[in-house]
Amino acid sequence: MARWLDRRERVDGLMDGLPVSLSGTERSRCQNLVFGVMRHAGRLEAALGRIVAHPPRFATRAVLYLAGFELIEASAAPGDPGRAARIVHHAVEQAKARTSPAEARLVNAVARKLAASMAASAPPPAGATVEALAEFYSHPAWLVRRWLARFGPEQVRALLEWNQQPAPVYARLRGRVPDEAPTFLKSTPWPYFYEIASGHWPEVEALLRAGRIYIQDPATRLPVELLGPKPGETILDACAAPGGKSLLIADTMAEGRLVALDLPGDRIERLTENLAHVAGVTVAVAPGDVRRGAGRWLDRRGLPSSFPGVLIDVPCTNTGVMRHRVDVKWRLQEGDFRQHARQQLALLGAAARLVAPGGRLVYSTCSIDREENRDVVDAFLGGEGPGFRLEAQLTSLPWESGHDGVGAYLLRRQRPAAG
Hints:
Layout (H helix, E strand, L loop, with lengths): L1 H6 L3 H6 L7 H16 L1 H11 L6 H19 L6 H16 L2 H20 L9 H7 L4 H11 L1 H11 L6 E4 L11 E3 L5 E4 L4 H10 L2 E3 L5 H7 L6 E4 L6 H10 L2 E7 L3 H9 L6 E7 L6 H7 L6 E7 L14 H4 L4 H17 L2 E11 L8 H9 L5 E9 L1 H4 L4 E8 L6
Parallel strand pairs: 5-6, 5-8, 6-7, 8-9
Antiparallel strand pairs: 1-3, 1-4, 2-3, 9-11, 10-11
Helix pairs in contact: 3-5, 4-5, 5-6, 5-7, 6-7, 8-9, 9-10, 17-18
């Protein structure tokens, strides 16, 4: 936690660095604490700023942030009047072991005031200022202001509340009928997608190794459903890593050919691993850049350079998946939306050149912001995409759909005029 406060390291890298000796239960508890602090970091920082004039060292600050998150948990579930005192005591003991005696005394005094502050806090009333919403729900004020202009106050509050809840872990059951799911997989409104009950990670790992399940949010099905892969087709996933949508495409087709393209590097290794359990579909994992002569590059390697179906799921700001990616909101900058949109338009244009006449192209993001979704599609259709038409679109707003946010657009390439 001190490392994140100091350097703002990516949370996935931090969690990958956990000692291998930690048990599954310990890892789960550690992740809950780290994710909880990151989720509520804005509220904790503001509360501590009102108590302490000068922030202490990062190691001491980490103890206070962790205690603060546990106090938020305690205030949300009243009924144990002694819990706050135990949290404060535990924080002091941790400070004694990890910091100096003076810092331990500081933790004792500050944590007691923090406990009173968390117990007295409540969600901002209707009509609250941007700053009040941003602090309580721990989001950058500029982002809250942006969303208010786009969605309005009621929907923004629903989104902020959604992002602050711990994310369930979902698994997609592969090649099995729903009533054959193990009992620790809890059914959801989305066929073949299940919520994993806690305390069953060894069983989950066994199913993952056997290729029976894939950890995947239900939102990922939407771009693939829009693409509509058919048995026997040859499909290109042009930004394929880590491979969840590629795997779903292959499972949907059951037979045919899939080309999974992505940039060279570590992601290709993970993509290859995730596609290792595909059956019935010929898979070619292709390390390359779709923006740099991908058609000629594919042709030289004996792969198709024109496809009846292409998916381009582009890098984005991740504003639709902040419930899962808890550190995104603290790394995001206002200029990122314009920067991503430029890259997304370039990727969409490159993917379009690989679509056969009459073929389908699905553009998708995990963003809920129009600038990365419909605006990019409109710019493409008004620029280098006049040979395409928009046939359908799907939008998932998390607080409405109950799963991650998605924007997905089905474009059809027109056939040349006869004669």
